[in-house]
Write a structure and sequence with these properties.
The chain is α/β, with parallel strands linked by helices and about 200 residues long. Helices cover about 45% and strands about 15% of the residues. It is built from eight helices and six strands, in the order ββααααβαβαβαβα. Pfam families: LacI (PF00356). InterPro entries: HTH_LacI, Lambda_DNA-bd_dom_sf.
């Protein structure tokens, strides 16, 4: 990528330059790719002045981080998945709103996955750790010993999950349900953060 400029004019029209990548920014700035990456990720190893210069350079040249690459590097996707049985979306709508509200406030996106209760073992198998999401929250009215054993086994294999297995009371107002959801979202993210930063010998807990 040669001759990068932020904007060009042609027949009185502004044209935006193509997006630069880390290699381009390193070449233009004279810093190594590693230094540029650390500066853009606010590393303490890089001085404030260098961070400021490289961030401005990144903005001027339309740099956008590759989210897939960032996820692979951090071993995190910043995505949560809400799992619940089919045909129960309306029942848990306020709880789901609470989970989404809390997760967004903490920098996470959310997906919703609905499954057939009769095929829960297969659903769990499909949701084994594949770096597609950081954690799951299950919304179920009840579980049996076999299901609990499955949850425990998958947790040991590295699937970060929590579950809410209490029925939603008929007289439970929307505000209270959202509060339940926010608590679930916070608890899951705290578990994800602990696991991410835990010593290796505890990574399977």
């Amino acid at each position: 990528m040669h001759g990068l400029t932020n904007k060009k004019t042609f027949d009185n029209k502004q044209l935006t330059a193509p997006m630069a990548n880390l290699k381009d920014l390193a070449r233009i700035s004279g810093f190594s790719i590693s230094t540029v990456s650390k500066a853009l990720n606010n590393s303490d190893e890089i001085s404030s002045l260098t961070k400021k210069k490289l961030r401005k350079l990144a903005t001027d040249h339309n740099y956008i981080p590759n989210k897939t690459a960032c996820a692979l590097r951090k071993q995190k996707t910043d995505i949560l998945m809400i799992c619940l049985p089919k045909q129960q979306l309306c029942k848990y709508s306020a709880v789901i709103e609470g989970i989404i509200d809390k997760s967004q406030s903490l920098g996470y996106q959310t997906l919703i996955h609905q499954f057939d209760l009769k095929t829960l073992p297969q659903a769990l198998k499909q949701l084994e750790p594949q770096r597609t999401v950081d954690g799951l929250v299950f919304l179920l009215e009840r579980t049996d010993p076999a299901t609990e054993n499955m949850f425990e086994q998958h947790a040991k294999e590295g699937l970060v999950l929590i579950k809410h297995t209490k029925p939603i009371a008929p007289n439970c107002d929307t505000k209270k349900q959202r509060g339940i959801g926010r608590k679930l979202g916070k608890a899951l993210i705290e578990r994800i953060d602990w696991k991410t930063n835990a010593p290796e010998q505890f990574s399977k807990i």
